Amino acid sequence: MTILTSRLSLGQGPRKVVVKDTIDIAGFPTCAGSAALADAPPAVAHAEIVERTLKAGYHIVGKANLHELAFGMTGINAWAGTPENPRYPTLIPGGSSSGSAAAVAAGLADIGIGTDTGGSIRVPAACCGVYGLKPTFGRLSRQGVMPAESSLDCVGPLAHDLHVLIAFMAAIDPHFQSSMEGSAPVLGCLSVSAEQAIWASIEEQLSLSGLARGDVTLPLMAEAFEAAMVIINRETFRACEALLATGKVGADVDQRLQAAAATTDAELKEAERIRRAFTAEVDAVLERHDVLVLPTLPHFPMTVQDAFSGHQDLKISSLARPFNLFWASRLIDPS
């Protein structure tokens, strides 16, 4: 099982942490799972999230593999190695934070630190059967995280145990609160299309919770997914364009980057319009509900064999990706 790209020994602590290899650790190269960055020089300083993790007393044990350049949802990586899904070995681990999810699922670490631009924490967490949190955009600093500029990307943790995840967030973010004060939260069950077995599992848990609930809709969900795809395509191409000239980018990511190059200014302008409209739509729903409930995945993950045969499944992020658009817009345009 290829999960960790390198073994480290930084600090001591009661909990073990692996760090996605798009995040700088001083003295080690940040390769982002790509042969095109195999000769990258060692980082000169820790990313801020690494500094906070070490200061909180956690022990970093390795850097985790990922879908190359964090630009894919399957988690496969022909060059750096594909992390095996410990719970479901025939299925993809999910991407792009595949190694972070697989490491905690395998018990190699208590916490995996990943990044999420369009579901890249939540999707692999669901694929590997662990917990994953995409915090509010900008809550955890992206200083020292690749790519340097992004209007969608968020740093966040994964864990096998929910209480361990909550404790980590509280340790690195003094403003983090894991519960709401006052009355019990009102749930808004979002009407989305997902396989029946997935919805049945959610319905069972909702019944056990005993919390008040109502049904809600977000008519712009599908458009928000497409808009988020436009924005990630433009931003990732700008960040990685120079790497294409090396000829060392893997075939699947090379293909996506070449397609992303065709993103037009008109498409980006329309995506930004949808960003604002979708944010207003979600804000309106959250005025009446404290929590939105929906599946992470619309369907079960594909097999590793299918992924290596060239199949892609960007739609696996269709229920997660729109909310990167939402939170980013809240920060960029707080009005």
From TrEMBL:
Give the range the annotation lists for the signal sequence.
Answer: none
What is the organism field in this record?
Answer: Vreelandella olivaria
UniProt-listed Gene3D superfamilies: Amidase signature (AS) domain
Look up the domain of life of the source. Bacteria
Database matches in PANTHER family:
GLUTAMYL-TRNA(GLN) AMIDOTRANSFERASE SUBUNIT A, MITOCHONDRIAL, TRANSAMIDASE
- Domain Amidase intervals: 17-176
SUPFAM superfamilies (UniProt xref): Amidase signature (AS) enzymes
UniProt-recorded name of the protein: Glu-tRNA amidotransferase
Q: Which family does it belong to?
A: Belongs to the amidase family.
